[in-house]
Structure formats: C-alpha cells, structure tokens
Amino acid sequence: MEEILSVLVRGLMEIVIPASVFLGFLIGGYILRKALFSRLSHWTKKTSTNIDDIIIHATRGPFILWCIMLGIYFVLKFSNLPQETVHISNKLLLVLGIVSVTLVAASISSRLVKVYSVRLESALPVTSLTQNITRIVIFGIGILILLNTLGISVTPILATLGIGGLAVALALQDTLSSLFAGFHIIAARQVKVGDYIKLESGEEGYVVDINWRTIKIRMLPNNMVLVPNEKLTKSIITNYCLPDKEMAVLVNLGVHYESDLVKVEKITCEVAQEIMNEVTGGVPNFQPFIRYHTFDDFSINFTVILRAKEFVDQYLIKHEFVKRLHERYKKEGIVIPYPIRAINYTQEKAKKDVIL
C-alpha cells in the first residue's frame, strides 16, 4: 500500500511541479507585463521621440508569448521526459523565439519608416514598396539567423538561390522590370505620393501609393487608376506639384469695345484680390493682375491671373470669381457682350445695284 501511495505521490509531483512552474511564469509574466508596460507608457509620455512608443506598442503583445515560452523551457527542465524529446522541444522553442523576435523587429522597423517619413523623404520617399523592402530585409536576416542556429549551412543555399534567381529573373522579366521601374520612380523623386499628376493618355489625379508593380492614382471622381510602373516611366507626365504646389489660375474674359479699360482692370483686380483673401485655396499675398491681348470680333479679350495653393483649389476659385465678377460688372455697368454679327446694309444694297 505504501509503495502504491509513493508511486502516486511521485507521479503527482511530476505533474504538479511542472504545472506550478508554468503557472508561476504565466501569472508572473502577466503581472510583470502590466506593471512594466504601465510604467514605461507613463515614462514615454514625457519623451519627445516616438521610437519608445513604437517599441512598447510592438512588444506588448509578444511579451506574454515570451513568458509562456520561458515557462515551457523550465517545465522541460523539471520534467522526466526523454532527453531527445527535451532537445527537440528546446529547438522548437528557439525557432519560435527567433520567429517572434523577427516579426517584432519587422513591425518596429516598418512603423519607424512610416512615422519618420518626413525625415526620410529627403533620402527616399516612403511608399508601400519601401516599407515592404524594410520588412523583407528584416525577414531575410531572421531566416539566416534561424538557419545558422539550426546548424544548416547558408552558403549552399545562397548558391542555389543565385542559380534559381537567374531562372526566375528570366521567367519574370515583365514583373521585375516593373519592380525596378518602381525603384527608379521613387529614387528619381519626379513623382511622389501626394502629387497631382496627369498622364498623356488623359487620366489625372493624386498619387496614392507606389508598390512593387503599379502606381495607384486616385482620380477626382474617386476612381482608382492602376498604372504599371514600367509604362509610367515611358509616358509623358504632367506633375502639378513640381516645382511647387502653388499654381497660376487663368480666367479668360472679354468686355465691350465701349468699355473703359482702365476701370475694367481696376474692378477686376479688386474682385480677384477679394477671392485670394476670402476663398479657401487662394494665396492671400498674391497680387492678381490682368493682361489684355486680343481685339476679337465682338469684344476686347483679356486674361485674369489668380493663384491657387494646389491644383484642385482652382475650381472653387474660378467658381467664386465668376459669380462675384458678374455681380460687380452689373453694378458698375460693364458689359460682357454676346457673340454678334453686324450686317452692313449699305454695302449689301450697293452690291445688289451693281448686279442689277
């Protein structure tokens, strides 16, 4: 009877001790996570940099996983499992640890690139392509560390990848040409995310993203145009954000031949200046002006030059300018003539007399 009790106690202890160790690490990890990250979050509020916030946010979730892995490691130490099983389990834990750290590092690097995009813009514009490259580099380093840890030689694999990469490159010429065209677009900085561009085929809109294969353009009707990177590099493009987002807004008008042109110029510039000061998208410090240029069939034509902060602002500026100028011309008695044709009756009558 005593032997049976001894066996039961011994078996129970083999279960209780590992379970206690595992629960201890799990509960301790949860308490430590709550206390540690609470203090760290309070501390990061006092710092001016965003790096600490990004690191804390990325490691908060995996921290419990690491505690569980550490608990399993010590459970295996206290267990009576065969050494081969323990060795394989430790290898699996190591692999899981490397994978989790790699994922955390990729998340941190990607968020850092995104947050500090303004600073990185001077060297390399930030798009989904550059963010994905950052992740790929981190994953590549993680895989190499994992293979080296498992005792797998990396050199033959790299040689095989080199030969295989040549075959893949020949099979995916179009895809790779778009990929490298994407790199060229980003490095040349002639088209960037946020720019308003117009293609030679007529499509125009804001550049939303540049990925490994296409550039995404959101048109004003809220439709998305996907242009292959390779075709974009071979197209004629008008970039309305280069060299600056501000642009001239031209409005063509005409007044009656009997109009006082000095008065027309004065009133038109006054209305245009009101638009610059009051309408969203106008440039208040810009002085609008007009230029007469044509004696047309029924009017003296001129162009009013205003200025908008960016391309789409011109539509509201023109809308308000036409409304206010039409009202002001009415008050001042300035006539915008309709297209007319004058018939010279004397000349027509003389022509008929000659024929008769």
Any overview of this molecule?
The chain is built from eleven helices and eight strands. It is an alpha+beta fold and 356 residues long. It has a five-stranded antiparallel β-sheet with strand order 4-3-2-1-5. Strands 6-8-7 form a three-stranded antiparallel β-sheet.
List keywords for this structure.
single chain; 356 residues; alpha+beta; SH3 type barrels; five-stranded antiparallel sheet; 8 strands; elongated
Write the layout of secondary structure elements.
Blueprint: H1 2-44, H2 51-78, H3 83-115, H4 117-120, H5 128-149, H6 154-171, H7 173-188, E1 196-199, E2 204-210, E3 214-218, E4 224-228, H8 229-233, E5 237-239, E6 247-255, H9 261-278, E7 289-295, E8 300-308, H10 313-332, H11 345-355
Antiparallel strand pairs: 1-2, 1-5, 2-3, 3-4, 6-8, 7-8
Helix pairs in contact: 1-2, 2-3, 3-5, 9-10
Strand/helix succession? HHHHHHHEEEEHEEHEEHH
What share of residues is helical? 55-70%
Q: Strand order within the widest sheet? A: 4-3-2-1-5
Arithmetic mean pLDDT: 76
Q: Quickly count the helices.
A: 11
Strand content: 5-15%
In short:
Helix content is 61%, strand content 14%. It is α+β, with helices and mostly antiparallel strands.
